[in-house]
Amino acid sequence: MLQLSKFPFKTLKTLPKVSDNRSTSLLLQGGYIRQAMSGAYEFLPMGHRVIQKISEVIREEMDLAWYHEMKMTILTPKEFWEKTGRWDIEDYFKVPGHGGSEYRIAPTNEENVTPIMNEFINSYKDLPTCVYHIQKKFRNEKRAKSWLLRGREFLMKDAYSFHADMENFQEFYEDVKKVYLKIYERLWLWADTVIADADGGAISDQNSHEFQTFLDIGEDIIVTDSWGYCYNLELASGIADDKNIDEAEKDLEYMDTVEDIVNMKKMTAYFEAPDWQMLKTVIYRLTSPNLSWKERDNMDKIKYIWVSLRGDLDISEVKLRQFVQSKYGNQSLSLATEDDLASIWTVRGFISPIKDAGLDVVFYGDDSLKTVKNFFWGANALAKSTKNLNIRDLDIEEYHNFAEPKEWFTSLNIAGEKLQFRKASEVGNIFHLWTKYTKPFWVSYLDADNTMQDQVEMWCYGIWVSRLMGVMAEYFMTEKGINWPDWIAPYDYVVIVIWEQNLEKSIQIGQELESNWQSVILDDRMGRKDGFWQKIWDAELWGIPNKIIISPKTLDQGWYELQIRWEETKIVKL
Amino acid sequence: MLQLSKFPFKTLKTLPKVSDNRSTSLLLQGGYIRQAMSGAYEFLPMGHRVIQKISEVIREEMDLAWYHEMKMTILTPKEFWEKTGRWDIEDYFKVPGHGGSEYRIAPTNEENVTPIMNEFINSYKDLPTCVYHIQKKFRNEKRAKSWLLRGREFLMKDAYSFHADMENFQEFYEDVKKVYLKIYERLWLWADTVIADADGGAISDQNSHEFQTFLDIGEDIIVTDSWGYCYNLELASGIADDKNIDEAEKDLEYMDTVEDIVNMKKMTAYFEAPDWQMLKTVIYRLTSPNLSWKERDNMDKIKYIWVSLRGDLDISEVKLRQFVQSKYGNQSLSLATEDDLASIWTVRGFISPIKDAGLDVVFYGDDSLKTVKNFFWGANALAKSTKNLNIRDLDIEEYHNFAEPKEWFTSLNIAGEKLQFRKASEVGNIFHLWTKYTKPFWVSYLDADNTMQDQVEMWCYGIWVSRLMGVMAEYFMTEKGINWPDWIAPYDYVVIVIWEQNLEKSIQIGQELESNWQSVILDDRMGRKDGFWQKIWDAELWGIPNKIIISPKTLDQGWYELQIRWEETKIVKL
Questions:
Q1: Residue B257 or residue A356, greater confidence
Q2: Residues of B whose CB is below 8 A from A71
Q3: Contacts A75 to B, Cβ<8 Å
Q4: For A42, which of B43, B66, B70 is closest by C-beta distance?
Q5: What residues are paired with B213 via a beta bridge?
Q6: Are strands B384-389 and B253-256 parallel, antiparallel or unpaired?
Q7: Nearest of B478, B503, B499, B441 to residue B565 by alpha carbon
Q8: What mean pLDDT is predicted for residues A361-390?
Q9: Shortest Cα distance from B431 to chain A (angstroms)?
């Protein structure tokens, strides 16, 4: 039983101001956390109990599902990361050792888990299998902000599963999803947590999902419709409104303009037309570092892609990247430079998707082009423009949804319904890693026919435990404190002792609760500064769900007051 | 319930060879651990359970004693370490961040805990207080060896206490000692774990103790006698044997010798006398970086100390350092250079503790000088020596026990009893940190008279959790596996299923055990490779204390076999 008179971690009398969010102020005021440096936080006893309890919920649900807990290292050798080509990622720390050696403090553990499991995966009978650990991770963030939501040091549960083929994954994935949803349910977040389709970065694909909890201070934007559509903004699509679509197509005109109409503002002013009537075209260069010679041959023909869309919209590079990956495999995408543009006979500000004979480029168009007639734009030469440009004039190879949706876009699923945009914070994710890690570490197995197979698919499953604590603090905060779920609150009961003369009896009541597996704080602080209300405030700050108030008057009459959260005060007879 | 048929972490058929120790081979064979790199180890599920259980024992005992658990950061800012002058310690990692920033992954957490507690220590009522955490630590070891016994990454429980004065510490310390001894008792190590007086390095003192478990592969040597004397070798003292002590003292003679008798071997050959009859003298220079001007004035007079001892013995620099600290306060000690020697009118190989008038040096003598008559040695000039040197001729200021004891030394406490030397491994320690950390972080409090006090004494208490696991593996290993203590073994019960037809019944038996809070492995592996004996061997390797053997024959008769460790096999009726 925690006796507060012996507990040095006092709450603060006033709410400290931090720029990011009010829940962080409450966590500081309640003595849950303290900043060691920007991006790294000390968990004081109250905060430590909360994060341990969140971890415990995760652990229990993972264990029930037969995933095996272990503990991988934080310090990892450079060789692991070189093997997978991830040594030089800027946001991962490098740690110099003696004699020129270098290590990494792990930001994620694919490079540990794959060689470990390689030792133990021998037969098809060993697959699928899933292991996990809960451990601190490190990212070399340029700017660490939002406190627990994004740190340089953070606690994460990361699980990794290995599969003989994609077929048996779907079933497995449904199980993981159930485990995750059960976790968010037990954390009382289920009503506002959604599964969004997400981009897993260059290493992942459409089998990647994020668990997002709606939160005003969230870093992500989730786009939904009432049909059940749920995507991270960077991947979301919708339908742009029709503009002058009923207008007749006029004849294409080439015209001399001026050199400096190289941005949207100048162009709309010059042409005296709205931005949506401009035919914006962006050129990307594809580079492919790891191609075979044969693949490289094919690639040489398609070095540049031109993407056109309405002038009032922007390209979602994440969607574009996925599109390119599906068409051309693993590619790096970069904006074309001035030299690139010159080499393909065009010039910035006057790019137009009209093909010159003999030029090896590909044109793609955003679906939004179909909502406008008679576009204005350049003619691939300085101060040369076009007018009344229409789809009929363009050499578009394929139309696709490249634009980042705007709040006035409508749903792809329910005609005319506006998309919903909500801020959210990522609390978990599932990424398909394909064979990106299993191949470099030579993971293989003998199949049922005793044939060696080296196609081992890998998935990873993350839950940001320390972020979850930050999300929960924000989600459950009230005017007075943080209303943690019953099993997450640092203690089950607080016993508030008003007069010292009742201390002995109060200890006895606390001990009885403890013998029934309840955790108890005894607020036995006496003195002017620690009056009844201070005790109540601190109990609220800590979100203790059950308060017992011991007063000599009621005790004399043989009862005490029990305040259970959200219930009316009860009288408990001794 | 762990079903081994679904568990990928198979044991190895043969014992892998590692140079250090056999218990590590067993840990590898049993799938407890795996090396990620030299000095950093993956804890696979079995090893993870063991280390978690050891941590849990520590946590329970610490909590019972009212120490408050928290979790400090691993990443720490450079400023913390600069404040205490520890930034440039070679064995601590420095981690470069963006824009020239540098962090440290913490090897210990004084630099975190002191500013934290500074926020919460305001009044004498807040003292004493003690906080702890169990977390991974990092050391930039040049060579990581001995596996779990000494890693670059290791798990440690570190506690820190703060005290208003030294007086109330003794009582507090006795409590900590009890907690520690209880922990080693629960880990079944008590019979071979001793408390040794130890050196806490430059920052600590005689209030420092190590908990050492006797172990043949231990890195330390512990010196004991039957009276209860128990010291780390580097601090131990004893009595050197008397040599020619009954010889008459002859007249001191100066003589011309040769230039090259500058080591013990050459000298004994030249003088044709045993090494113990040489009067070895070593000169140290004291430097004191942080003295006040007044203190510096006094120090200028005593820049060099000369320490003499028998030629067959060596100085324990740790003891010398403590002696110097007690005489002169905090000093750096270094061997005098050739230039130093010239400045004080002597020369290497011919140093003799005979004072020249006007020379400001101090002579100290080891007690062993009293066991020999008629020493040989130099005369503070090249190729000049002395013969029949006796205590009467020396200007020794004070005699003290500076020599590192040899195995033939006798006890200081029991006349004539030989000292015992035993190898041991440090499993815990208690260091007095004085005000080394509280001063730079300005920790202060208001005393009972409302006066500000800035003398806050600090102690730290470590338990190397991952080393403890290595020590226990070595300590409890048998021919077949590791006989962990009951509550440390990865599981309480193994249920061995011999025939698949009994699987359902076996699961039921396992579940019944689980509902009684027992943890259970069900060994349901079938097939040629996983016969009865493999199952028994694996159970031994994992040190599971209770084995249930399910065979169709006994089950038909309504019973099964229960093998409780160290007991006769029992028959349990269904």
A1: B257
A2: 42-43, 47-48, 51
A3: 36-37, 39-40, 138, 152-153
A4: B70
A5: B193, B425
A6: antiparallel
A7: B478
A8: 91
A9: 22
Q: Which fold has domain A253-400?
A: YbaK protein (3.90.960)
Nearest partner of B302 among B316, B285, B315, judged by Cα: B285
How far apart (Å, rounded) are the C-alpha atoms in residues B484 and B491? 10
Q: Do strands A420-434 and A457-464 pair parallel, antiparallel, or not at all (unpaired)? A: antiparallel
Alpha carbon distance A35, B99 (integer Å): 21
Give counts: helices (H), strands (E), chain B: 13, 30
Query: How is residue B174 written in tokens?
Result: 């006795």
Q: Which amino acid is at B114?
A: T
Q: How many angstroms separate the Cα of A315 from the Cα of each of A63, A220, A311?
A: 43, 17, 10
Q: Does A195 touch chain B (CB under 8 A)?
A: no
Which residues are CB-contacts of A209 (< 8 A; sequence separation ≥ 6)?
Answer: A177, A195, A196, A197, A198, A429, A430
Q: Residue B328 has which token pair?
A: 């002169």
Single-letter code of the amino acid located at B496: I
Residues shown for chain A: 574
CATH class of B49-69+120-237+421-473: alpha beta
Q: What is the pLDDT of residue A160?
A: 97
CB B244 within 8 A of CB B277: yes
Please, which pLDDT band fits residue A204 given cuts at 50, 70 and 90? Answer: very low
To the nearest whole Å, the CA of B181 is away from the closest chain A CA by 23
Instruction: Tell me which fold the domain A22-70+115-237+421-474 belongs to.
Output: BirA Bifunctional Protein; domain 2 (3.30.930)
State how far the Cα of B500 lies from the Cα of B526, in Å rounded to an integer: 7
Calculate how close chain A gets to B67, using CA atoms only, in Å.
9
Mind telling me how many Å the CA of B75 is from chain A's nearest CA? 7
For residue B280, the Cα-to-chain-centroid distance in whole angstroms is: 31
Q: Which of B138, B142, B90, B107 is nearest to A75 (CA)?
A: B138
Residue-wise pLDDT for B320-329, tens only, equals 988 888 888 7
Give the separation between CA A193 and CA A179, rounded to whole angstroms.
14
pLDDT tens, position by position, B59-91: 999 999 989 999 999 999 999 999 999 999 999
Q: Which residues in chain A touch residue B152, judged by CB atoms under 8 angstroms apart?
A: 75, 97, 103
E-only strand ranges, B316-456: 332-335, 362-366, 375-378, 384-389, 398-400, 420-434, 445-446, 452-453
- Cβ-based neighbour number of residue B141 at 10 Å: 16
Cβ of A44 within 8 Å of Cβ of B116? The answer is yes
Mean pLDDT for B161-174 is 84
Considering the domain A491-573, what is its CATH architecture? 3-Layer(aba) Sandwich (3.40)
Asked if residues A70 and B48 have their Cβ atoms less than 8 Å apart, the reply is yes
The domain segmentation of chain A, as residue ranges, is 22-70+115-237+421-474, 253-400, 491-573
Residue A51 touches chain B, beta carbons under 8 Å: yes
What is the gyration radius of the CA atoms in chain B, in angstroms?
A: 30
Statement: residue A73 has pLDDT above 70 = yes
Residue A329 identity (one-letter amino acid): G
Average pLDDT, chain A: 90
Phi, psi of A217 (to 5 degrees): -95, 10
Q: Name residues 513-572 of chain B within 8 A of A (Cβ).
A: none
Reported confidence tier of residue B297, pLDDT bands at 50, 70, 90 = low
CATH for B489-573, among 3.40.50.800, 1.10.10.60, 3.30.70.980, 1.20.970.10? Answer: 3.40.50.800
Question: Distance of CA A431 to CAs A110, A136, A173, Å?
Answer: 12, 20, 11
Shortest CA distance from A34: residue in chain B: B116
A64 touches chain B (CB under 8 A): no
A 10 A CB-CB count for B122 gives 14
Over 80: is that where the pLDDT of B115 sits?
Answer: yes
